[in-house]
Amino acid sequence: MRRPRAAPFEQPSLVPMADMLTNTVGIMLFILIFAALSTSGAVALKHLPRERSTDAKAIFMYCSGGRLARIDADALMRRIEKPLGDPTYATATAWAKRYSTQKIQTDDLDVSGEASAVYDENPFQSSVRLNKAIIAHIRKDRGDDVDAIHEGRSELQALIGTENNRDEFFFFLVDPDSIAIFRAARDRVAKAGFNVGWSSLGPGEPARIGNGGRQAKVS
């Protein structure tokens, strides 16, 4: 009895696999080239500063109109409050309105007050909280310019010489038109060992410092 002949063996073709690998590599190269072209000229930041809280006291500096001026918020608030007397629970709203109409002037700044009374009513105890702030503009051609900062003949330099870099830090409020003077001032105080924080303002926006606002932090 004749045995059936085995079917001849056919070697599988590797051409389809080679085509698939070639296409895959080609697509990957295209993606890499496209990504490289898209990111050409981009700057990779090596460090992103993160804000942190501090127990040190903030020395507020305002950069606007290419000028730099200190804002002594505590002293300015005391000047605004002095003619108003002490508020009470009954007079808090009227006191806040009067505070908001006050305007004073320093050598470098035009300053106005802003306040509101917030009442907390509950069955056990009624209380009132006063949110107070000062609004400051640098007066025309007042404050220090960038040359004064570089030459070390500014109010900033005087503060560096009298303040303690362990107990105080410098916090800058920066108008977009004053980046250059901010950088010069920041570099000078950092070189003196002070921590630095900063916050950006809108174009022409005044500096606002108050007890109900964002806490000044170190960057």
Detail the topology: elements first, then pairings.
Elements: H1 15-38, E1 57-64, E2 67-71, H2 73-81, H3 92-99, E3 103-105, E4 109-120, E5 127-138, H4 146-151, H5 155-162, E6 168-174, H6 179-191, E7 196-200, E8 207-210
Parallel strand pairs: 1-6, 6-7
Antiparallel strand pairs: 1-2, 3-4, 4-5, 5-8
Radius of gyration: 32 Å
Oligomer: single chain
Intertermini distance: 95 Å
Order of helices and strands: HEEHHEEEHHEHEE
What's the pLDDT, averaged over the residues?
82
Integer tally of domains = 1
Helical fraction equals 25-40%
* Uncertain stretches of 5 or more adjacent residues: 39-49
What's the tally of helices? 6
The total count of strands amounts to 8
Shape: extended
Structural class: alpha/beta
Major sheet description: 4 strands, mixed
Biggest sheet: strand arrangement: 2-1-6-7
| Beta-strand content estimate | 25-35%
Features:
about 220 residues; alpha/beta; 4-stranded mixed sheet
Describe the overall structure.
The protein has six helices and eight strands. It is of the alpha/beta class and 219 residues long. The protein has one domain. The strands form two sheets. Strands 2-1-6-7 form a four-stranded mixed β-sheet, covered by helices on one side. The longest helix has 24 residues, at 15-38. The radius of gyration is 32 Å and the shape is extended.
